[in-house]
Amino acid sequence: MQRKSEGIVVPRRPAPQNAGGGKGPWGGHDGEGRRHKGMVAERGTGNPSRRRSNSPDRRMPVDHVQRLQRRLGEAAKRGPGRRFHALYDRIWRADILREAWRRVARNGGSAGIDEESIAAIRTLGEDAFIADLGERLRAGTYRPQAVRRCWIPKANGGRRGLGIPTVRDRVVQAATKLVLEPIFEVDFQDCSYGFRPGRSATQALEVLRVRGARGGNHVLDADIRDFFGSLDHGVLMERVRRRVSDRRVLRLIRMWLEAGVMEEGRAIAMLSGVPQGGVISPLLSNIYLAFLDERWTRQCAHLGTLVRYADDFVILCDTKAKVEEAERRVKIIFKRLKLELHPEKTRRVELADGKAGFDFLGCHLHKRMSGRIWAAEKKRRYFLQRWPSDRSMKRVRQRVKELTPRAACHRDLRETIATLNPVLRGWGNYFKTGNAARKFNQLDSYVWQRLRALVRKRKGRNLRPGEMARWTRDEFVRLGLHRLRGTVRYPGDRTMPLPDRPPVSRVREIRTHGLNGGLATARPKGGGK
Predict the structure, then answer these.
(1) Which residues pair with 307 in a beta bridge?
(2) Could you give the C-alpha distances from 405 to 401, 416, 440, 471, 484, in angstroms and in order?
(3) What single-letter DSSP state applies at residue 499?
(4) What does the alpha-carbon distance between residue 193 and residue 104 come to, in Å, rounded to a whole number?
(5) Longest dimension (CA), the chain
(6) What is the C-alpha separation between 246 and 27, in angstroms, rounded?
């Protein structure tokens, strides 16, 4: 007879030819009999070759791309000064090119100067495309084409040049990035957050928030003048050669840098800079600016906290003298990199007592006094908070306006809401980790007004008195509209100052006051009766 304390025992690895009728995990009898042998299950019926083990310890399919990246990263970590000399044959491997093609196809994008689109490649055959590209790389006949340049408007009224490589060049760049990224990743400092695996803009903003709670009343809000257009090719290749000695890989990167751009049918050679829009451009920019991160971490960390996201960075300091010295040190480091700070956009900001704020990564960061601490302790404590900047609010309002034109009144309202929801969710997911409740309510109100205007336009002269009163915010939410209100979530516990009086242990409190309060010595032994 089984004892109660033993419970139900389920063998982890039953023996082959396990007898039918054995107990299952809930104590019942297995009625399957001898349909399968041991821990073997069939994928299909009547085909013994299509059987696989259903053991919980069975080996999962090996991802050879991740395994290669892991080995390269481990080797780079073991040898800080090691230079890798056999990387080119990894780039044209079929699995590497297939993974690169998968990422490029997932990101989408338009065609380059050869007008070969992703849809056209899928029509002709992905396998043939990958095989042809691998053969060109293996034979050494691959040559990148010029980048198609287009101009996109900036929020301040200017234009930003964007380079669009061909799909073939994007795939080769993605394959090269898969091989090189784990090697350089081990050398990058913790102050860098842009375009790195496992790091995000939210983490960079959280570092500033936590640092701002412990002082940090002065900020150097830096801006690099024409960063992507002024990268020196010689300095960049020198930085790459610190880790890569494979001449074929170095030649591949140099060809991309010298491919030039095509604008209005004219080919323009590039003597400096990298195309902003290339797949490998973010990695090359991080390699270039890693010199700033290294020098600051080793020699200037006592001045303040550096937080960099690609070419945008700020330095949070405690005093005015330190922030001035930080700006002087950055200029010295930039001379080595042949870069310069933008004199009009770079500024020093004082955050103390909420005097001013600054914009970073789409957010406005500003110190505000804690009302809770003031009400409890009558102390003025300021914490660095963030919410969507005015530029971010203007941009998302413009996007909502584009998706809700007057002509949309003739469409089904659910279709318009379905086009709005991805924009609202994506925008809200980015800003929901800050103090964005007020901005979220403002955007909800704007969306509600735009949708009410469509309803009113559709009704026209048939609108009856009081009919619009039923089109409340909840009514649009009932139709499927995504509401931003109530979605603010902090990525971690907020760092609040410790109270002056240490917390009392609950065990000591019960021992002194009892479960019902009051001193235990003052209560009668009979329970107060």
Answers:
(1) 314
(2) 6, 10, 22, 19, 21
(3) P
(4) 22
(5) 99
(6) 62
d(CA 136, CA 171): 13
Q: Is 296 exposed, middle or buried (0-12, 13-18, 19+ CB in 10 A)?
A: buried
Q: What angle do CA 482, 486, 492 make, to 5 degrees?
A: 120
Burial code of 164-174, b = ≥16 C-beta within 10 A, e = fewer? bbbbbbbbbbb
Q: Is the pLDDT at 12 greater than 60, yes or no?
A: no
Identify which has the larger pLDDT, 507 or 307: 307
**Among 65-69, 341-345, 444-448, 456-460, whose mean pLDDT is lowest?**
456-460
- CA pair distance 189, 297, nearest whole angstrom: 8
- Sort strands 261-263 and 147-153 into parallel, antiparallel or unpaired: parallel
Nearest-5° angle of CA 138, CA 139, CA 140? 95
Which residue type sits at 236?
A: L
d(CA 291, CA 285): 11
Round to whole Å and give the CA distance between 397 and 523: 66
41 touches 51 (CB < 8 A): yes
Cα separation of 362 and 61, whole Å?
41
Task: Read off the amino acid at residue 268.
Answer: I
Category of 195 on φ-ψ map: left (φ > 0), alpha (ψ -120 to 50) or beta: left
Helix (H/G/I), strand (E/B), else coil: 345: coil
Is the pLDDT at 370 greater than 80? The verdict is: yes
Query: How far apart (Å, rounded) are the C-alpha atoms in residues 492 and 79?
Result: 35
Return the closest-CA partner of residue 384 out of 305, 469, 309, 308: 305
CA distances from 494 to 213, 216, 382, 490, 498 (A): 10, 17, 13, 8, 12
Residue 178 and residue 100 in contact, taking contact as beta carbons nearer than 8 Å: yes
3-state secondary structure of 364: strand
For tokens 């290749």, the residue is 237
- Between CA 179 and CA 350 the distance in angstroms is 43
E-strand stretches of 146-275 = 147-153, 159-164, 218-222, 261-263, 266-268
Residue 405 pLDDT more than 80?
yes
* Residues 90/95/100/104 CA torsion (nearest 10 deg): 160
Report the mean per-residue pLDDT for the chain. 83
Contact 23, 10 (CB under 8 A): yes
Asked if residue 225 lies in contact with residue 341, where contact means CB atoms within 8 angstroms, the answer is yes
Distance CA 337, CA 74 (A): 29
pLDDT for residue 24: 44
Q: Can you give the pLDDT at residue 196?
A: 94
pTM: 0.79
- Cβ-based burial of 362 (10 A; exposed 0-12, middle 13-18, buried ≥19): middle
The answer to whether the CB of 385 falls within 8 A of the CB of 365 is: yes
Return the structure tokens found at 230.
């002024």
Q: Are strands 261-263 and 305-309 parallel, antiparallel or unpaired?
A: unpaired
Single out the residue of 412, 407, 398 nearest to residue 457, CA to CA: 407
User: What secondary structure does DSSP assign to 370-385, as a single string?
Assistant: -HHHHHHH----EEEE
